[in-house]
Amino acid sequence: MAGPSLRSALTDERIYSLMTDRFANGDPSNDTGGVPGGPLDNGYDPTSRAYYNGGDLKGVTSKLDYIQDLGMTSIWITPPMYNDWIFGEAPNQTASYHGYWITKFDQVDPHVGTEQDLRDLVDAAHAKGMKVFFDIVANHTGDVITYEEGESQPYIPKSEVPYKDAEGEPFDDRDFAQQPDFPALDPQVSFPYTPTFRQPGDEVAKSPAWLNDVTMYHNRGETTFEGENSLYGDFFGLDDLFTERPEVSEGFVQIYRKWIDDYGIDGYRIDTTRHVNGEFWQAFNDGILDYARANGKPEFFMFGEAAVEDEVELSMYTTRDKYQSVLDFSFQGQARKFASQSTAPASSLRELFANDDWFTDHDSNAYQLTTFVDNHDRGRIGWMIRADNPGSSDWEQLRRMELAHELLFLARGNPVVYYGDEQGFASEGDADGTDQFARQSMFASQVPQYLDDDLIGTISTMAQDNWDTRHPMFRYIQRLSNVTEAHPALRNGTQVERYASDEAGVYAFSRIGATEQIEYVVALNNSTEDKTVAIPTYSAGMPFTRVYPAGNTTLQTAADSTLTVTGPRLSAQVFRAAVPVAASKAAPTARIINLPVGPGVSGRQQIEATVTGNGYATVSFAVRVAGTRDWTLIGSDDNPNYSVYYDVTAHPLGTRLQFAAVVTDNAGHTRTSPIVTRVVRNPA
């Protein structure tokens, strides 16, 4: 019934996220995708941030040494699949340089190169010990389908016009989601709008061929990104797939299995996770992961993009929907506040990490979350810092940028560095630093808006190549990579909350490896003033030597086990204990609490255990149906407060469930809590 707190292979990875078209141009002959003419013919315009600028797969391959020198162990590239090149109506057309408007899911887009170029990239990365993650899409395709009623129609709710089967009988698609008896559909009678194709030839524009069947799409009109239409509506006219249909989930399983077969990639970042029904993800994630593991990829890893700062929702994807990980948008929001806004209390980070238990189950937890401080949608951290601190000095902007990345690398999760941050890219001068404004090219730009950018930490401009390994941000990220590589506990050790100021100031936590039991104390100060604080630790009279920044500073804990640290303004420090934490002499006791006082439980129920003492421990939680013998592991938590959330809705109403907890200390002693029995009820 007891088990360790999980760590996956991804906790050893440092991921470099790049937009292929904006990274490096290794083959100018493919800039136009092999199609002559102008931007509206081939999508290429190096003077426009809305069109292809020329980066490609050969360019990425040529810069692998640069990425590895930065300390990155993996790359995540934007979708390499064949796209619908031009989108929108005059004069507001834009090109699919980002790769998210796919039409041919089984082909490489010629703007980024050839199949051989892609194989060469993956092979070269693997030869260097690096992993390659593809960005993929399953929510929508490029805009090929329109309606007989006209383009860009408003969304029609299912309550007003339900789906109808081919015989005209209404039905609720959710009753048949991923079921083999999903009703047959007819494009003339089944949908609120009548789907058709935009122009001759579009009826065969997509591949595999099943994607050309218009009944494989929701056909309900445009989304407003709220409620039901967030799952069923078209994104700005993009064709929204009918992911409740089993043919769609199975079709995408086959599509993305083939990319594994053909290129030997190491994982997927999955776009628009929150806009697809959970039944699809359950079938898709099982179908891909089981296949990868059975075909020589035991560490294959997939993480989803759900752009919401809500741990309860985010955790549903890693528990109910079988994702291994999601991008931690809650972390990104709090990281901006901490590093960029000096009025933000340090305690906001403590509150963020206090919600980590939502993610704990039998095969995943918060340590697997992919963390980031900026990306291609939300904008660059440099832009955020300038927006939050108008008139700030160059030194302050650089220091805040460094502080954001120090939090990214030293706290739990798997850090994702967005390309260009290491060169101080900042989207200067843009009223809105998101989306296209945050997608500058690393190679010399011809885009007028990018040429106005003022980079942080350098006098370089966007008019030149920016591959400077001497840039202060490059060196800072490199040092952070080196220190986490040298001290594995900073990558995958337990994170124990230690100190958090209720105003701008010090946030401190320990990282400790489950086996080595060496404690590290991480102290970050987001104040513009130096701060001195006493930080609790596991040990009294313990010498702690600073390992970041490098130096010979050694401090010693007091009799009450506190370590007094002075944190310079806008800085981070890491101290390492001289010897392991003392082994426990006897197991602490555990008692389950925080279950309803009455007999009933409902929904995602928190199960919490109190543990005596303040030593290192792991608590495993288990459940069984009363009257049965075998226990099922819910999950294991290795930092206080010890708890998990269990979804009791998997059991019929009236089921009597029994819960227990097993605590294991750092010497291997175990002790089991009393069993608590509760009945599954409807929510109040």
Structure characterization notes:
It is a single chain. The chain has 684 residues and is an alpha+beta fold. The chain is 21% helix and 24% strand. Among the domains are: 488-577, Golgi alpha-mannosidase II (Immunoglobulin-like); 590-680, Sandwich (Immunoglobulin-like), CATH 2.60.40.10. It contains 15 helices and 35 strands. Helix 9 packs antiparallel against helix 12. The longest helix has 18 residues, at 246-263. It is globular, with a radius of gyration of 26 Å. The chain starts with 14 loop residues before the first strand and ends with a strand.
Keywords:
globular; alpha+beta; Immunoglobulin-like; eight-stranded parallel sheet; six-stranded antiparallel sheet; 15 helices
